[in-house]
Design brief:
By secondary structure, this protein is α+β, with helices and mostly antiparallel strands. Helix content is about 50%, strand content about 20%.
Length: about 1000
Amino acid sequence: MAETVKKPKKKNVNRIIRTVFIIALLVILSILALGDFITDFIWFREVGYTEVFLKELFTKLELGLPIFLGVTLLAVALLNALKSGFLKKNQLVLGDKSVKKRVRIISIVLSATFSLLLTVMIVSDLWFQILQFINSTDFNVADPLFHKDVSFYIFKLDFLRGLASGATIIIVALAIMIGLFYVLLLGFARSEGSSAAAEEAEAEAEVFRNAEEARAAAENEQSGQNGQGPKTYSGIDDILSEFMAKNRQSGPRRDPNEFRTKGRALLNVAGREIIFLAILFFLSIAANFYLSQFNLLYGGTGTAYGAGFTDINVTLNVYRAMIIFSLAAAVCMAIAIRKKSIKLGLIFPVLMIIVSLAGTGIAGAVQSYIVAPDELNKESKYINNNIQYTRLAYNLQNIKVEDYAVKGDIDRLDVLDNMETFSNIRINDFEPTNQFYNQTQSIRSYYQFNDVDVDRYYINGEYTQVFLSAREINQQYEDSWLIRHLKYTHGYGITLSRVDRITSSGQPEMLIGSIPPVSDVPEIVIQRPEIYYGESTNDYVITNTGEPEFDFPSGESNQYCQYQGTGGIKLNMLNRILFAIKERTLKILISTNINGDSRILINRNIVNRVKKIAPFLSINDDPYVVVEDGKVYWIIDAFTQSAYYPYSEPYSASTNVNYIRNSVKIVVDAYNGDTNFYICDEEDPLVRTLAKIYPSLFKKLDEMPQFLKAHLQYPNNLFNIQAYVFTKYHMTDVAVFYQSEDQWSISNESYGQATKQMTPNYFIMKLPGESEGEFVSAIPYTPNGKSNMTGILMARQDGDNYGQLVLYRMPKDRTIYGPMQIEAQINQDAEISKEFALWNNSGSSYLRGNLFVIPVEDSLLYVEPVYLTATSTSLPEVKRVVMFYGDKVAYEPTLAECLDVLFGSGAGDPLKTAYPVVTGKQMVEDIKSGKLDLDMPSQGGQGADPSQQGSQGGSQEGQGSQELSTDDVKGLITQLTELLEKLNALLPSPEPEEAPSDAAIETSPAAID
């Protein structure tokens, strides 16, 4: 008796343990499955973009739940209607309640499964297209063929294609669902007579089963009392009786012709469904052909991109015929099924196949025998469409074209008056500068400079182009978890150097360097140099822990700090568990250094950070660092792009993108990680649509701090795309475009010791006709297949001129040297080629930097730095600067000396001062006023300081504006010295106070040298 009481309790305990275990397992699995979602939600809340994160989820729920519930209810109703019609028409029943319940459950499961698949297909793939469809913004530009606004193609066509392509899948799934349901009905349905017999047999079987269960219970009880085993049979009678009972339970034997009869009944009843599916199928085909006609705007068979003569006159008509035939096939198929006529149902499908094949043949014949012999006349209208819409898509229609005279008549005064340009000519290159920074400014092996950025700052009050780079922590340096994630948490400071200055050893002249940063620039002060978010900070870090963070090295010791910023997520116990799971480490959970005030900083790589927030933007992978307001910031360019701009040709064979805008500027705080998105092109319909979808994400450009707005750059990768497209689409005359009479190429240059295509370069220069220097990007053109220069395309960057493209078109009546022709001139110079050969054979090698084409007034100059690198070191040094003007080449150690050689002594003097622009303008004023005459040998011309320019002048009667070479001047000085010595020998010695001073004569050669 005691055992019978204890056994149920033990079973209850086991049941409770199993339940707790299952619940715990489900919780763990849920956390593992939803862990990334939860931590992402926490992070988006930390950065202030929760709405952006939830937009996808809420959109899918808002669309998915109504679709799922609505389709499920409709499908259940449809299946119930099919069931009732099938049973009623064929005088069938489903039997007892259990069978009816089973059929009802099956119909619900089939409907829900079908609805779920349909919902997932629509919502998962099309949720963003649905948002674009709803929030589309007009371009106010219509395509020339169908006269639809471009917004239809950019925002709606992709969504409609998705629906149309999914229609066939839906129809097939619907057919499968209905077919499965009918098969199940065949298995469960019974005729009314057989059903009655089955119910009677079932009743008899139930009585028999009750009797057998009672006898079995008695036998079991007896065997339990006698200690016997399982039930045994006393004889053959028991075995036969059990066999007969089982047969009686199975009901009456089925009629062998029952399934055949029900099959014919199924075909009769399912006729309506087959008609319905056939109509849907051909309607989906018609929809696909309707949407396919818009594909003609992308590609085509004509000479230009987009729909051409054959596409419009043949292929388009074929599509329209197929639409009509598809609709007719739907009607005929319904009639054919009713009349059971296969021939009637196949008429239009066969016609569609014939028309499709015939259309292909006719299109080829028209293209070959009608269009090709008279292609220009036949295609001119469509070529013009291609030109017009491609220029619109790449924003080339507003390029300002200016004819550039290239007179070649600038003199020394022009050089001095254009020091904004000459003082910002880049003679340092990106890669050598990056190597120099890493070898001399890393300070410790755990620091690194990812790359070098170019920007402009005011230095000593003058607009100056500089190189700068952020000193980031190299977290791969140490494998220890504590050091990697708790100790080495951030980089420190930046380096900055002028692009035009080098040391005596040929290396960049540093203006900001060392740790902590030491600045020689009064305009740039860094009060918060720590870099927690950067280009190469890929790992998470935990701040405000019991372990002090390494800040920077100081002599033989280190300085430590605690993070004071607002970035990161506080690690309470729940967050510790979640992020321990996310980062796959228990150390976050068990480390005693982590407390309630600790913060985990994740997604610190600024490019990945921005992509995670806004995956719908195309992000420039090369951010640039900015130092302003005492802090370090990153600026990242983001682009909106599309592949559906009608008649616009993709910019590359490797992409289908044919529309692009730099519509968004993103600023990331290197200390706090604050990430702000600013719309910089409010005329772009794509970004306006995104702003409707994500109203809390974007800010107006006016909200950007002015000190950051001054550093906005027109991105070179976009400018390079526009420059490439413009090589072909600067031709707006259809005949010229068709014959490629004036197609251009982007110039090549000798770089290193190889030839490569030029890329845009940034400059600060005073553009022709402008009064002040400005930040620009430029790239030169040559005629296709030739080397002479035909134009320079520039992108202005400053103020209200930001983004304005200007083409300086070279004269066509004479040859203007292109970059490769200048490279050939350099190679042919005897002195230069001899030195190049010497360097390559003396344990070193020379490398040629970028060749710069620089407009000055109405003339062109070409400048190229030359590097020398020893085989034992990877640190190149600037050893020479080559400058070409007119037909003269200067090959000197510095840019200033090149200017002196080409334009006369003193032309490069301002470059030797801290204020080259002010010095140059002061020298111009002094020369014009007669205070300074650089043609007379004197100490003037050194240009040591603007305040001394007034005392550096002099006059030389009869000299006028004649220019003398250095050798001529030295010869005159020698002759004058000899003449004075002879006069001194003939004349008596003067009194000491009247003795002639030779100081000027003695110092003049030094000034010339």
